[in-house]
Amino acid sequence: MMTKAEYLAKAAVEDDWAPGWLAIDAAFDTHYPGITPAHLGTLLPARAMFGGEEYLDGCSIFPSPNGYQHLLTYGMSTLYVDEESYGGEFSGWGYEMTMKVRADGPDDCGWAVSSMSNLARYTYTSKRWFEPFQFISGRGQPLRTDSNTLLTSYLTVPDTEVNGIDTLHGRVDFIQLVGITQPELDWIAGTSPEGATDRTKALAQRIAEDGNPNLSTNLSRTHNYV
Asked: Percentage of residues in the chain with pLDDT exceeding 90?
């Protein structure tokens, strides 16, 4: 573990050092060795720190051999040098978002990147963060607005493939978004908060056991699991 003195010394000589970003990259490089992902970066003027409305610095999209695109956000955790964040319990909000989209390539994932960007904006502006085994209502609208998909909402789970990491700025977990239908959302939401957690776990298990162990999101799905 790098000491704070070493951290500050390295920061002083490397203007572009981004220890949080590099730690995230290392975690995914281990899972996708030798693969360079497509990366969609947010333009600097659009970022919230410069007065814009974008709270993510970017999103990487890894082609999985399992037939989906594995999306990863950058921006929910502390990416760059920040003396006050050194040695913290959690890095930023303590997580980055992921999603596994059934698509031929990155060009078909724009809707998912936009969705994650909107959720980042929600967290930063409302100060309400996400944890595993919660549900996120889409208010009855399709996840991809220009489609007739039956998926309207999300449930959250720990990423099924990449474990969380401890960084110089604290813990970063990877929270995976999983697209669900309106009947599935209604079933989860129609009980107590404790019951909703149990139903979220049960729904995730049903999806996983039906030939989708990594809980990828398929906009073409028509089957309901409730």
From this structure: 90
